[in-house]
Amino acid sequence: MKVVISLFIAVLFAIPLLVGGPQRPNILIIFTDDQGYADLACYGNKKNKTPRLDQLAREGTRFTSFYSQTVCGPSRSALLTGRQPIRSGGWGMPASEITWAELARKAGYQTACIGKWDVSNRKPIVDRMPNAQGFDYYFGALGANDNGSVQFHENNKAVGNSRDMGGLVRLYTEKSIDFLKEKRDPGKPFVLYLAHTMMHTIIDASPAFRGKSEGGLYGDVVEEFDHETGRLLDVLDELDLSGNTLVIYTSDNGPWNQDKYTKRKKGHPKGSIFWGEAGPLRNGKGSPYEAGYRLPCIVRWPGKVPANRTSDAIFASIDFLPTFASLCGFETPADRRIDGIDQTELLLGKTERGRESFYFNRAGVRKGKWKYLLPDAHFHGYAAEDGRKKVDELYDLEADIGERNNLAEKHPDIVSELKKLTKELESKKVTVEGPTQFRILLKEKGAEGTSGRIKVNSDRESVMFEVSDESGIGGGSIHLRSGQWPKKVLLRIHLPGLEGFEIKVGGEEFSGAYHGDGAPRPDNCLPTRMVDAGGSPLSGRYLVEAVKGGGSRRREGYYEVEVPQSVLGSKARTMELSWVDFYRR
Ligand SMILES: [Ca+2]
User: Residue 334's beta-bridge partner residues?
Assistant: First the structure.
């Protein structure tokens, strides 16, 4: 029976937001500065006593192939955005970058940042400060403490300065405790990003810790940090928050441990050795060798993240954003290349597989056990190794974690593959896979009060848009948000009595109407087939057919239209669709 339906125009996003269930965790990130891979007892340090972080490791998972970045600002822009520093900008992170804090806040989280920011060029540029980048609350220093002093901001307001470097671990811990106890909205989950200034030189410890450790002043700072972190974790217990809080502890980059830097730098406390330990790893901060990038990382979420577990899976700070997306219930941005991957399953112990590869900023790539460095791999000045030959370097990290035995000449095929991968990862060309590559806008609600739908199914090579509409008359548009149209673009139309179907691309109109097998096709008509549920061709013109004695019967099937690349071209970003189906009850 024919139904005439008026058309209402409204817009809705057909891609549903992931809605997090009741299990959405709070997130506490404890991020230290310049702390080495082997500064904690649980990562092999023999001098520093770190009972609270060792306990955290026993209560959670200790990662041994975790990568941040090799210096401060790039590490922070990568952690906040899920994007490598070549894309997220490092110290100069643009206001246009999207942080997980912005996304979590939109998804109902309360967000706070305490401590070192270091992605607004160390200046109070308001649209690049924490409040503008997603944090409801901020207290800390926008830059580093290289000259032994810091300037504080609370939100966007300057609130004084300090030369008491030994007081910073305690101060930032106090501010974090104050957030949890006094500023936290108990009606919302929270993300607290606590980015300590220590162990970044100029280091110092408070009088209660100075001179107490076996590791010199640096060890004193590590031990004070351990003690203060313990106090913060105790407050989570006290407030009954530990059970549903994902705690992540890691560091922004490896330790300063280069003579060149020490000799040039003035102003250290007398007699202090201010650097951390990298254990078996080569070089330190500023270098693309492992000690620059590979950092301790402990993750605890009681009952969710396995306790007493050590994982060598490759995991990285760029993965935080997609992982938080999954845990907190927001979508990753689809209009830009996100380098991170969702590591929820790894964290929850449902898989032991992590990343396949990790890119080192302007330097090379690790894939599996192989680490490749370009002949002109980027080193920050103090990390440059005199006498390093400018040749391809290839290391087997399983056999040679210290990167001493260059196997490049022995495996030219692997060198060539990883060189290619490095270039691909550096490419500015954006290719976003998956349904979020497309944005669907629909004209909503016909006379029946039900709305149409366009479902997206895609893989690397092809995409299929499935159109269905209970009201019978409708339309919408499909927007390519990034990258190129896949090789094969199919429309599957689940309208039983399709009477008219139009597609407008780049100002040109095409008909997708089906006039029956063998019927003459008008100009500008796209190849259309009527097929059964299994994809075999069907005869006749409609999926609805009359039955003897009146009434009608619906045959299972759909219309399929292939949109040729010649129609889409390289510039078309939008397909506008409209459809009419007169066979509706
Ligand atoms: Ca740093």
Answer: none
